[in-house]
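#onboarding

Welcome to the new folks! Below is a worked example of what a typical request in this channel looks like: someone posts a single protein sequence, and someone else replies with the predicted structure as tokens. Don't worry about understanding the tokens yet, we'll cover that in week two.

Example request:
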Amino acid sequence: MLRDLQRYHERNQLIEIIYLDHHGKTSQRKLRLHSICGNQVKAYCFARRANRVFQIDNILAAIPVVNRHVG
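Example response:
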């Protein structure tokens, strides 16, 4: 997971994650990564409209966001 997150950060890609919070609840989030330090990711969370810190061990899945334009 760490390697994927580092690659997305280097490419400045928006990502979607499935995240397990400290209460055991999962959520889907769209993020703009700011930094990766140790076991934490600092990112802007579009769902919360705020900067947040995520534990890498609690990120269950991460994929890049693909913008599809119809036209």
